[in-house]
Amino acid sequence: MTARVSADLTVERAEFDVSVRFDVDAGGCVALLGPNGAGKSTVLTALAGLTPLTSGVLTVDGETLEAAGSVRRPPESRRIALLDQRARLFPHLSIERNIAFGPRARGIDRGRTQTIVRQWLDRIGLVDRAKARPHELSGGQQQRVAIARAFASQPRVLLLDEPFAALDAESAPIVRAILSDELTGSGTTAVLVTHEMSDAWQWADTCLVMNRGTIVESGTPSDLAVRPRRAFTAALAGFDVVRGRWIGGRLDTGEALLNGTPEDGLCDGDPAVGIIAPRDVAIEALTVDTGMSSVLTSVSVQAGVVRVETGSGLHAELSVDDALRAGCGSLPRAGERYTLTPTGMRVVGAEAARGLTVSPSSTRASPTRADERGVRHPVTRPLGL
């Protein structure tokens, strides 16, 4: 079941209004990205009919589901399914009855519903747990049932609100694979909220970056991954985001002066943001301080790659051999001062980062611990069930 979605939505909120406009082709997927509190989930609840529109129109395949002040189809008649971080299964129903709920609500006869339920229990690998209640399953198993329940109702549109965020490292790949197979096989139109660029890359045709209720950047996943224009998008795609002022043809971070190529007509003294891939940052031991040096705040080693970080948010990634050369025979240590030289850093006006509070390392770096030499190493966490 595929359907084309046309959304022109405005929802009043206490902090700010959420106002977006976008289309999703039949069988396509749009990904909504942005910092927490940007209004992404509000868009999904408005599409699902759980939050009324202040103004605007929502149509699916040319049928008006909601037009503020005139038409409002209730959630249960929209055939739009919402899948979020929590499975939200009916706690008093068995697994098989949870899956059967959608088909029965649509008037499908008992025999056909039982066939649908059996097929789905087999696909999600829970045939032997058909009579179990949700509290008897693990979080990953519950989310598999939630996917089955959503698709068993044959929705025209599937809304995905970070459906993997609460899953452990063992369950997430299984649930991702099940969802990916079904989206591909059914051709269901989808709107995805995510903080993972890999999910947007896998499923989305278009990415929309939101901030404070509006769309501030859009493009294909490739556009955003290769040449992001916003601080949040850059950090999400794995780039460093370095903040400072554009002074004398360099980015002044307060700690160092960094070379970069300005965009968007930067003037001397303007607040600015540098965007650079860590692999494009060279590191050298400090010999003569030219104003380009920085104090290393952490050093981590993983899979033969040394990653150093400075307080300004600038990182460098290099091989162990290159790191030993830079450290004159020993690995760089936190607290030491080195010269970090970015190559090809883009510098954009701070307007591109306004309101998008990003810790450049928060979306990529693993927890670390320091050894007796001050070198930081990744911490291994036990897998939950």
From TrEMBL:
Residues 2-237 form the ABC transporter domain. Residues 355-385 are annotated as: Disordered. Coiled coil: none annotated. Keywords: ATP-binding, Nucleotide-binding, Transport. GO terms for molecular function: ATP binding. The keyword Lyase does not apply. Pfam families: ABC_tran. SUPFAM superfamilies: P-loop containing nucleoside triphosphate hydrolases. This is ATP-binding cassette domain-containing protein. InterPro entries: AAA+_ATPase (IPR003593), ABC_SmlMolc_Importer (IPR050093), ABC_transporter-like_ATP-bd (IPR003439), ABC_transporter-like_CS (IPR017871), P-loop_NTPase (IPR027417).
